[in-house]
Amino acid sequence: MRLSDVVFYLRSLIGFIIGFISALISGLQGLPFPLTWAPSIALAVATYYLTYRVLRRFLRGKLRKRDIALAGIEAYIFTWLFSWTLFYTIFYMAP
After folding, report:
1. Would you state the pLDDT for residue 44?
2. DSSP code of residue 31
3. Intra-chain end-to-end CA distance of the chain, in Å
4. Which pLDDT tens digit goes with each residue over 41-78?
5. How many CA atoms lie within 13 A of 25 on its CB side?
6. pLDDT at 77
7. Is 32 left (phi over 0), alpha (psi -120 to 50) or beta?
8. 3-state secondary structure 39-92
9. Residue 26: pLDDT above 90?
């Protein structure tokens, strides 16, 4: 398995976990709509940036900065959105 594949799958897994946490955050009761969803989006963006910084430190000289920054970005975003929607629906919309 190539190193870029490992980064891809790692970001997919992290996206799934952050989606779960985002669902918990956005289900907070008693807050207006933007105040429950904005922190979830900010958490996802901050986590992606943090993974970039950590991976760049560990993979210095093995992958280019651009490859580290872009490897798995689609998987992260789609997995995060999918798991956020799935868990939000299960936790708060199910009867």
Report:
1. 96
2. S
3. 43
4. 999 999 999 999 999 999 988 989 999 999 999 999 99
5. 18
6. 97
7. beta
8. HHHHHHHHHHHHHHHHHHHHCECCECHHHHHHCCHHHHHHHHHHHHHHHHHHHH
9. no
Q: Per-residue b/e over 46-63, b at no fewer than 16 CB within 10 Å?
A: ebbeebbeebeeebeeeb
The ranges assigned to domains in the chain are 3-93
Task: Flag whether pLDDT at 36 surpasses 90.
Answer: no
How long, in residues, is the chain? Answer: 95
Q: Which amino acid is at 64?
A: R
Question: Given the structure tokens 């969803």, which residue do they identify?
Answer: 37
Task: Report the distance separating Cα 35 and Cα 48, nearest Å.
Answer: 21
